[in-house]
Amino acid sequence: MTQDVPARHERPVFVATDIDGTLLNVRDEVPEGHRRILARVVDSGATLCLATGRPPRWLPEILGDLGQQPLAVCANGAVIMDTSTGEVLWSRLLEPDALEEIARIVRDELPGVGLAAERMGRDAIDDEFIAAPDYRHAWIHPESVEVGHDEVIAGPVLKLLARVPGMSSSDMASAVRTRVEHLAQVTFSTENGLIEFAPPGVTKAAALTRVAEQVGALRFRREPGAAPRTVAFGDMPNDVEMLQWADLGVAMGNAHPIAVAAADETTLTSDEAGLESVLSRWF
């Protein structure tokens, strides 16, 4: 008895891209080349998925510029959402017991640290950023609700953030990783003294596997000489697992060395429309 084998495919069927430093240029805009090539990806019938450390509420501002409403993996893999409706399709939260122990370890290892958290609201756009009084923002999106230190870790959160201005994120992560690895996944998307914690096993790659399985992208077998089934683009350490997961992981020309080392190849910078440079091979 013969088994049905999916036909050889001549172009990728699933494209995932990080947002900041990857999809967006230094002006936080989607370059025309990225907009053009991703429209071709969608028009071809391939699946486009955003994969970002951003919370869900930070997506609407770039969707209009992108001109698409794809599925999105947010908060480094803690949320999968439908950007066309704002519906949360899947999520996993850090619970208070783990948060309390993580906070204790972080305060022990990183003197002067400030803590903040992303909370899930009633829907994907209703999430809330809460911060302790000593938390100093790393981003240009400073909106937050100031709460007491204990309240930051009092309820389930999408991710916990720790900030030490003047310290590199790499050094922060190195200081705490071995002590919290049984409690949380540690990553960062900037070297500006900010690290982030998610439940163990929560990564962009894990969430993308869920999405790719749901849309049937993984039923294709990659054969020698065939196009990669899955292509992923990223620029920072929180993209490492995603770059390793994809058949073709592509680091941007402006990428962190850790992301470059994890990728199969490096393309042009986000300012130079690096996605278009790679994806125009097939679309």
Describe this structure in words.
This protein is an alpha/beta fold and 283 residues long. It is 30% helix and 20% strand. The protein has helices spanning 19-23, 32-43, 60-66, 96-109, 149-152, 169-180, 204-215, 240-245, 257-262, 274-279, and strands at residues 14-17, 47-51, 71-74, 79-82, 87-91, 114-119, 128-131, 145-146, 159-163, 185-187, 194-198, 230-234, 248-251, 265-266. The strands form two sheets. Strands 5-4-3-2-1-12-13-14 form an eight-stranded mixed β-sheet. A six-stranded mixed β-sheet has the order 8-7-6-9-11-10, with helices on one face. The chain starts with 13 loop residues before the first strand and ends with a helix.
